[in-house]
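RECORD TYPE: inverse folding
INPUT: C-alpha cells
STRUCTURE:
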C-alpha cells in the first residue's frame, strides 16, 4: 500500500489535470462541476466569469473549509461534539439551509415549467444574499460535526473536550459573517480567494470523508500519534475523491456537453 496509493494518486491527479478545463480557475470549475449545478444566474461573477460554485455552494464550502482550518488551530485533538446549545444553533443553520434551498428550488421549477407550476407558492423571492448566508451556516454545521468525528477516528489518545465551545463558536460565526459581507461587495480582490477557498473546501471535505472511510476499511482507526503519520490515509482519500469527481464530471459532460451550468436553466 505504501507504493500503490502514491502511484494511484499520481494517476488520479494527472487524469484530473488532463480532463479539467485549462487554467487554475478551470481546474476549480472541474471540482465545482461535480458537486454544484453551476447555474450562471445563481453564481457570483468576476467580470463575465462565474465562480466555480453557485452562491449557496460557495458559502457552504468556503465556510466548511474555513471552519475546519479554524478548529485545527484552536481545537487540536479535541474530540467531543459541541454542547447541546451549540448543536441547537447548528440545527437552526441546517433548517435555514433546507428552507431557503427548498424555496429556491420551487422557484426554479416554476421558472422552467412554462407556467404549468405557477400555482406552487413561494415563501419569498430567492436571492444570492440568502443563498450565501444559509450556505455558509450549513458549512459551519458540517465542519463542527465532522471535525470531532475525525479526531475520534484518528487518534490513539484524544482530548475529551468539545472541539467547539461558545467563545470559539462565536468567533467563527463572526468571522464567516465578515467574509460574507466582503464577498457581497463583488470585489475581485475578495472573489478570487473565495473561488479558491470554496472549491478547495469542497475537495477537502470529500478527501476527509474518504480518508476516514479508508481508515475504517483498513482497520487503522485510533492508531495514530501525530499528524505526520496521516499522509497515507489522506492521500488515499484524495485519490478516491478525485476519481469520484472525474466520474461525475465525465458523466455530466457527456450528458450536457458543457462545463457550465445546466443547459436551458437561466434563473
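DESIGNED SEQUENCE:
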Amino acid at each position: 500500500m505504501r507504493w500503490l496509493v502514491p502511484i494511484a494518486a499520481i494517476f488520479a491527479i494527472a487524469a484530473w489535470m488532463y480532463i479539467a478545463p485549462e487554467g487554475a480557475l478551470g481546474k476549480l470549475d472541474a471540482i465545482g462541476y461535480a458537486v454544484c449545478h453551476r447555474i450562471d444566474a445563481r453564481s457570483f461573477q468576476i467580470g463575465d466569469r462565474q465562480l466555480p460554485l453557485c452562491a449557496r455552494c460557495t458559502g457552504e464550502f468556503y465556510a466548511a473549509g474555513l471552519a475546519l482550518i479554524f478548529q485545527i488551530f484552536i481545537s487540536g485533538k479535541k474530540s467531543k461534539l459541541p454542547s447541546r446549545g451549540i448543536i441547537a444553533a447548528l440545527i437552526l443553520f441546517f433548517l435555514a439551509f433546507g428552507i431557503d434551498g427548498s424555496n429556491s428550488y420551487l422557484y426554479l421549477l416554476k421558472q422552467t415549467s412554462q407556467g404549468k407550476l405557477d400555482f406552487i407558492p413561494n415563501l419569498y423571492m430567492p436571492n444570492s444574499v440568502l443563498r450565501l448566508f444559509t450556505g455558509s451556516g450549513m458549512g459551519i454545521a458540517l465542519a463542527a460535526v465532522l471535525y470531532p468525528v475525525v479526531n475520534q477516528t484518528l487518534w490513539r489518545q484524544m482530548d475529551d473536550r468539545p472541539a467547539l465551545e461558545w467563545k470559539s463558536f462565536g468567533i467563527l460565526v463572526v468571522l464567516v459573517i465578515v467574509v460574507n459581507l466582503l464577498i457581497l461587495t463583488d470585489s475581485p480582490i475578495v472573489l478570487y480567494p473565495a473561488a479558491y477557498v470554496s472549491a478547495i473546501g469542497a475537495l477537502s471535505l470529500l478527501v476527509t470523508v474518504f480518508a476516514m472511510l479508508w481508515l475504517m476499511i483498513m482497520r487503522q482507526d485510533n492508531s495514530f500519534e501525530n499528524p505526520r503519520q496521516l499522509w497515507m490515509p489522506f492521500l488515499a482519500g484524495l485519490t478516491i475523491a478525485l476519481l469520484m469527481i472525474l466520474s461525475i464530471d465525465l458523466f455530466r459532460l457527456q450528458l450536457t456537453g458543457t462545463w457550465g451550468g445546466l443547459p436551458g436553466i437561466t434563473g
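NOTES: The chain is about 65% helix and 5% strand.
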